[in-house]
Amino acid sequence: MRIKRELSQRELGILAGLDPFVASARVNRYELGVHAPDVATAQRLAQCLQVPLAYLFATDERLARAILAFDQLSARQKDRLLADIEPKPGSPP
Amino acid sequence: MRIKRELSQRELGILAGLDPFVASARVNRYELGVHAPDVATAQRLAQCLQVPLAYLFATDERLARAILAFDQLSARQKDRLLADIEPKPGSPP
DNA sequence: GCACTAAGGTTGACTTAGTTG
DNA sequence: CAACTAAGTCAACCTTAGTGC
Hints:
Two copies of one chain form a homodimer.
Chain A: H1 9-15, H2 23-32, H3 39-49, H4 61-72, H5 75-85
Helix pairs in contact in A: 1-2
The structure holds a DNA duplex.
């Protein structure tokens, strides 16, 4: 899982609502990819990191950056960007 | 999990390498959100659906569309888009 | 064919307790 | 403090077997 944090593993886990006694071990396993959390826990971690849940699962570096950047845009900017890059229907065939 | 398929649940599961006898039940559980697959299985499903893994976890509709559209761009287009929308460092403070 | 489900077995995440820098 | 790990427990997923459309 793609975790980009500024806090310690333990602090992040506690912030995400994990029991302080287990936060360190669990976040460590997630960050190293030994274990994977359930989606609810992943969602809480994402909220604490202020990134979209999808960002944690972005395997491609550029896509990860795009997800972060897109998330920062205003609703209007998102709509304009989508209009720019989404393929128009009825073109390919 | 965000699954947008054109095949049947069973067909998708088989295509993703699941045992034909269990493909239907498992994909059904994933699609309805009753169970979640491990990341390796999710990755195989994403490949079959020809979407990035992150797309399956996009909770926001616009972000989901953006991920799909971004994935279709050429490497050069991706880099140009990132240059456009990524916040420049040193502006906020 | 399709989507969907309950019950029980089994695997892997979770807790505990600990080491190391 | 921090990052990281092994071992045993048990919840969550997987399999089986089945329903109804």
